[in-house]
Amino acid sequence: MNLDTWDKPAFACLSSRLPYGTPIDKKKLQMVGEAEDYLFKSGFKQVRVRHHNNIARIEVSPEDIEHLTSINLRRKIVKKLKEIGYHYVTLDLQGYRTGSMNEVLERNE
């Protein structure tokens, strides 16, 4: 088929990056989209930025965690995500996993 996206990861709706019950608006989705775009352009293939109000929780594949924490790259990412509007930039040490926003629901059952 010659699709130029054959090697790209599947994307869930950006609203899945917000906790359940969080009102969804254009600004929040733009923040998430811009942050994820920056991380993809920085060389990460599997990325999610989970939006927790003024906190960006970054998930990358476990094998990319060490790369993300290199001092120069880490500083650039923090600077960019703060420019986007996040006050705090965090790294989820469990790495990327599908459905991570569902984990809170599972614990509350």
Describe the fold and architecture:
The protein is α+β, with helices and mostly antiparallel strands and 109 residues long. It has a single domain, classed as Alpha-Beta Plaits. It contains four helices and three strands; from the N terminus they run H-E-E-H-H-E-H. It has helices at 26-41, 65-68, 71-84, 103-108; strands spanning 47-52, 55-60, 88-91. It has a three-stranded mixed sheet with strand order 1-2-3, covered by helices on one side. Strand 1 (47-52) and strand 2 (55-60) form a beta hairpin. Helix 1 (26-41) runs antiparallel to helix 3. The longest helix is centred in the N-terminal third of the chain and has 16 residues, at 26-41. The chain is globular. The mean pLDDT is 87.
Please name the defining characteristics of this protein.
single chain; 109 residues; alpha+beta; 37% helix; three-stranded mixed beta sheet; Alpha-Beta Plaits
How many domains? The number is: 1
* Helix content estimate: 25-40%
* Span between termini: 44 Å
**Number of DSSP E strands:** 3
Choose one word for the global shape: globular
CATH class: Alpha Beta
Largest sheet descriptor = 3 strands, mixed
Radius of gyration: 14 Å
Low-confidence segments, given as residue ranges, are none
In sequence order, what are the helices and strands, one letter per element?
HEEHHEH
Strand order of the largest sheet: 1-2-3
Portion in beta strands = 5-15%
CATH topology: Alpha-Beta Plaits
Which class of secondary structure composition applies to the elements?
alpha+beta
Count of separate DSSP helical elements:
4
